[in-house]
Design brief:
Structural class: mainly alpha
Largest sheet: none
Strand content: under 5%
CATH topology of the largest domain: Tetracycline Repressor, domain 2
Number of domains: 2
Order of helices and strands: HHHHHHHHH
CATH class of the largest domain: Mainly Alpha
Helix content: over 70%
CATH architecture of the largest domain: Orthogonal Bundle
CATH superfamily of the largest domain: Tetracycline Repressor, domain 2
Number of strands: 0
């Protein structure tokens, strides 16, 4: 097989991902109803028929686009959780920093949240699948971390073990806040994280919050992904 043929095969294999990336930009700019597949095709440099070769309908493009852009976020977040080490207070602080700065401030995460809220009634199966494939496994990792902290004697036995959503929910709140208000009503993210950490440690730890919160701070590694 000559080089041009190999290049064409690689290009064809990359085409579905390119279409979904272009679809993300169009859906983010116009919303589902106003987005035209002709404009998605123009971004990729193909015909509208090429899109239908890979995806039967506009609904299928939207559905697969959500999965396509969500997977890298999920993989990076779960890898971060799995790599956490040290006292569980340190892990919790590092996780909060990561969640707020990676999920709530990262554009793809914000737009996925916008899509799910705005189009959830139109795509109930998509919302359920997103919950099953992404949220449930992530929440289970949080539950495991709380359980390990209890076993280590750092956290007290608490009903929060049944509801790890309590750790994750403030990041969702901040995400929705930005979607609603953008820059009109700003929140100091660091103070927001400090307040959430204070509340969590008061509720979870055997002896309450450390008197010197800085001792529990952890340096946040920079995300390897970004989207302008």
């Amino acid at each position: 097989m000559n080089a041009p043929t190999k290049a064409r095969m690689r290009r064809k294999a990359d085409r579905p991902g390119e279409i979904l990336e272009a679809a993300f930009e169009e859906f983010a700019k116009h919303g589902y109803a106003a987005t035209r597949l002709e404009d998605v095709a123009k971004r990729v440099g193909v015909t509208k028929g090429t899109i239908y070769f890979y995806f039967e309908t506009k609904e299928r493009v939207f559905d697969e686009m959500i999965r396509h852009v969500s997977r890298p976020i999920f993989d990076e977040v779960t890898s971060f959780v799995a790599a956490l080490e040290g006292p569980f207070g340190v892990r919790l602080r590092a996780l909060l920093d990561f969640l707020f700065r990676f999920i709530a401030e990262e554009r793809v995460g914000r737009e996925v949240m916008r899509f799910l809220i705005a189009e959830g009634a139109r795509f109930p199966d998509l919302v359920e699948r997103h919950h099953r494939e992404f949220l449930v496994p992530f929440l289970e990792r949080l539950r495991e971390m709380i359980a390990a902290g209890i076993k280590a004697g750092e956290f007290r036995a608490t009903p929060a073990l049944r509801y790890p959503e309590l750790i994750f929910s403030p990041a969702l709140l901040l995400n929705v806040w930005w979607l609603l208000f953008d820059d009109r009503h700003q929140i100091d993210v660091k103070m927001f994280i400090d307040a959430q950490f204070d509340l969590l440690m008061d509720g979870l730890s055997m002896g309450g919050l450390e008197s010197e919160p800085k001792r529990l701070s952890a340096k946040l590694p920079r995300s390897g992904r970004s989207r302008a």
